[in-house]
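Aim 2 progress update. The chain analyzed this quarter is reproduced below.
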Amino acid sequence: MQEREGEIMPVISIKMSSRPREMKRELVEKLSAAAAETTGLPISAFTVLIEELPAENIGLGGKLLDEK
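Predicted structure tokens:
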């Protein structure tokens, strides 16, 4: 969590395979809105971090995503 002027600021972190910029924009908006609604904190309090992982580094069902 980040700290700003003595307050602990929430951070939302997500790891996923590469996605288009517009999809990431929508994801950030929706995650922030849902978190703000749930916690009662302002949407501006939330930081969203997206870590993109290549499909060759993700396994699902015993296979790499780039092999499916």
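The mean pLDDT is 91. DSSP finds one helix and six strands in the chain. These observations will guide the mutagenesis experiments scheduled for the next reporting period.
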